[in-house]
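Q: Here's a chain of 328 amino acids. Please give me its 3D structure as tokens.
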Amino acid sequence: MGKNGKRKAAGLLALGLAFCAAGTGYWPAQADEEQMQAEEEQVQADEEQVQADEEQVQAEQTEQVQTGRTQTQQAQTESVENILLIGTDHRNDSWNGNSDVMILATIRPEEHRITMTSFMRDLYADIPGYGAHKLNYAFAVGGGALLEETLEDNYDLSIDNYAVVDFGSMAEIVDIFGGVEMEISDAECQWLNGYLNSMEAWDDYLPGGGTYVLNGNQAVAYMRIRYVGNNDYERTQRQRDILKGIFGKLGALGPEQLLRLAGTLLDEVEYDFSLFEIADLLELVPELPEYELEESRIPYDDLYSSQNEMLVPDFAATIERLHAELGL
């Protein structure tokens, strides 16, 4: 019998007893009425107590569920690593250079998933201490730390660390992995060779379009191509394609390659990782080839406008969508 049924049965039982007592003439009529009223009041009091007990139980269950959800969400958030990968055209010590590559790598070990989100260089940004500028201005005037702070402030993010590579260190990393296979169009090949010329890497020219295993210099030149296709939009795609190619070879690195990679990362890459954080990431390396790779780009196609040569996102909608994609 349900709870409502029990309540009704209790009420009927009390009324039935009162009716029987009155029918036998055991109580005077007035006493019968008073007794019946007392019984009804008792039944009502019992029902109110049952309802209060049910509400208390429901409140306790709701609190337990909410606490469990909160603890689960906190555990998932704590396990997420946000690492900002920065590529710069820095060629001397006079300035930081332009941050032509700005990719947030979000690692979610609980889901075996990595999301690479490119932030385009011409994005409007409110840079702490400098005001409104294009996003890559943050790195030019304040390096990785200011770029990290700018992205955190503008997109409500928490970034754990950053790493900065220039043309030379990126080329070394690609060579350690044995190159990256890419399909190159004739138009891309023309621009690629032009960038190789500026890098004084004349021996690495390609004869024309085709599928090649790009060495370090060629891969860097490919990542720099901006004037084929949809300008910087496609350049960010090329950058992610090279990183995906490197990622795909991660599980095949031998001991000698790993040592070379470690030496290059320590000597040629600027970063703000502690030794403990590096150790934590190294623990993930054997599992990373099994992770699912996802990619994205800010601004989203349908959530921005162009103003004064800057790409101005719809920040509220962009942040909501970005956080959903990153599982934040």
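Q: Can you summarize the key feature?
A: The longest helix spans residues 29-79.
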